Amino acid sequence: MDGEFHGIKFVDSHTGGEPTRFIWEGGPELGSAGLNERMIRLRDEFDRFRQFVINEPRGWEAVVGALLCEPVDHTCAAGVIFFNNTGYLGMCGHGTIGVAVTLFHLGRIGLGSHRFETPVGEVQVNLLGPHEVAFTNVPSYRWKARVKLEVEGVGMIIGDIAWGGNWFFIVNQSPVSVEPRNLESLSVLSGKIRQSLVQNGLTGKGGNEIDHIELLSPSPSPEVNSRGFVYCPGGAYDRSPCGTGTSAKIACLAADGKLSPGQIWVQESVIGSRFEGCYRINEEGAIVPEITGKAFICSEGCLIQQASDFFEIGIPLGVK
Ligand code: PYC
Fold first, then answer.
1. All domains of the chain, ordered by start, with CATH?
2. 107 CA to middle of ligand 1, Å?
3. What secondary structure, in 3-state letters, does the chain show?
4. Among residues 92, 232, 252, 278, which one is catalytic?
5. Quick one: which of 28, 58, 148, 256 could link to 46 by a disulfide (CB 3.0–4.6 Å)?
């Protein structure tokens, strides 16, 4: 017998190694308000749906969910709400690339230019090929430069607080080298940085929590500008170079006069996948990043919940 959720159709993809689970049918009825209001409704009334989609054994900690919604503006190709193992994301860069490739796979969009609505604004997507996407992110900016932070057991760390669709604390010279063999230490360090940000009352604009930590090191490849480790809100690390994190970094480079409009920045993830980024200045003088990356389809199917399942919404975070 079925439980409360049924007919939930999904396509899984990965963007530079980072998974996106796109739900294109069977999601909760969220009404027709703006995407931010619908995200709040999903959070407040249907959080069990998020848990059901993301938690083990159906999902896992690294996966980002993307719920397809009817856009308010029907000239947009889609509305999308992103979520993960702890909550909801304003925007998600790797997810946007994954969603565009998935919509193409489903035969819902063709190659070329499209617009998606997200809770933090509209993003422009250019499907360059079946796997390659360039997206124009929301305006990004540095909020505070060279913030000094005392981190327990580590000492003083200096970082920038920046917005790229999510809030980031960006450490340009990571005290732990960004390499796959250091994944454990990078996660521990990031967790401590996040704790210290909270303890010191450091937030993004409007008191918003800085829930992503970005640690950067030089890459061994000369064609790459920087290699990054991005620690996500639920404790997983981003396998991709992180679209919103690359946008936030580009905003800092622009603020420092180290990257000109149109100049390419190559950002590599800790596992070696790459995004190319650049920016333009819009009419309001804001930095608008454009990020290019590739995604591939992994699987598709239907999520099933059976009424007598002890873990009907999966294994909650913190139980494992
Ligand atoms: O690509 O923006 C991104 C992202 C955020 C969290 C995981 N990936």
1. 8-137+298-303 (3.10.310.10), 141-281 (3.10.310.10)
2. 25
3. CECCCCCEEEEEEEECCEEEEEEEECCCCCCCCCHHHHHHHHHHHCHHHHHHHHCCCCCCCCCEEEEEECCCCCCCCEEEEEECCCCEECCCHHHHHHHHHHHHHCCCCCCEEEEEEECCEEEEEEECCCCEEEEECCCEEEEEEEEEEEECCCEEEEEEEEECCCEEEEECCCCCCCCHHHHHHHHHHHHHHHHHHHHCCCCCHHHCCCCEEEEEECCCCCCCCEEEEEECCCCCECCCCCHHHHHHHHHHHHHCCCCCCCCCEEEEECCCCEEEEEEEECCCCCEEEEEEEEEEEEEEEEECCECCCCCCCCCCCCCC
4. 92
5. 28
User: Each residue's pLDDT tens digit in the chain (320 positions)?
Assistant: 467 888 999 999 999 999 999 999 999 999 999 999 999 999 999 999 999 999 999 999 999 999 999 999 999 999 999 999 999 998 999 999 999 999 999 999 999 999 999 999 999 999 999 999 999 999 999 999 999 999 999 999 999 999 999 999 999 999 999 999 999 999 999 999 999 999 999 999 999 999 999 999 999 999 999 999 999 998 999 999 999 999 999 999 999 999 999 999 999 999 999 999 999 999 999 999 999 999 999 999 999 999 899 999 999 876 55
